[in-house]
Design a protein that fits this description.
The protein is of the alpha/beta class. The protein has helices at residues 28-38, 48-54, 67-78, 104-113, 121-129, and strands at 2-9, 13-16, 41-47, 80-84, 96-99, 115-119, 135-141, 148-150, 160-167, 173-179. The strands form 2 sheets. The chain has an 8-stranded mixed β-sheet, sandwiched between helices.
């Protein structure tokens, strides 16, 4: 299964017009919930920018961190990572390989081996256009940012079924959709 998991503003952005996403940092309750969602992921797919953001999990000191932070760092470090980039020549984390282009057939093969997560709206757009995304996990934050990097690509339609939802004390709402067909 391929999952597109994303934290988004209420108006549908992953980053604001200045590229900032500090408003998206999950609190302890949401972070622990995300960890449970991610626990079964064996491979993460990233574009260069998302990988550069996530690579800090490789070296973040775990002493003094919250349990959800420690848990996520351990899960991230144990998972395989595939980074699609024409500019990166080497990975800064273990269990990571660089691929020069997104290959839908290779992703289909990865899905046969276990659960895969696609991170970042740019790479997710390629997976959505290729019809590869099986589930969408959205964590909608109670903020309107007015523009920026959209969660979904323009010009693509996907018919979905809502299969789960949850509201958190912080006002974040989790929505889990499965692709029809």
């Amino acid at each position: 299964m391929l999952v597109y998991s994303v934290i988004a503003s209420l108006d549908g952005y992953t980053a604001d017009a200045e590229g900032k996403f500090d408003w998206a940092e999950p609190d302890e309750e949401v972070h622990a919930f995300v960890n449970e969602l991610e626990r079964g992921i064996g491979t993460y797919l990233y574009g260069r920018r998302m990988y550069e953001t996530m690579a800090s999990w490789e070296t973040v000191p775990l002493a003094g961190q919250s349990q959800p932070t420690r848990d996520f760092a351990e899960m991230w470090r144990a998972a395989d990572k595939v980074v699609y980039s024409t500019t990166l020549t080497a990975a800064s984390s273990a269990r990571t390989r660089i691929e020069p282009r997104f290959d839908p057939e290779a992703v289909r093969a990865l899905k046969q081996r276990g659960d895969v997560s696609v991170g970042g709206p740019g790479l997710a757009a390629s997976a959505i256009r290729a019809g590869l995304v099986d589930e969408y996990h959205l964590l909608v934050t109670p903020v309107v940012v007015g523009g920026g990097t959209a969660v979904f690509p323009d010009g693509v339609r996907a018919d979905l079924d809502l299969v789960d939802e949850r509201r958190f004390a912080s006002g974040v709402v989790y929505l889990r959709y499965r692709t029809r067909g």
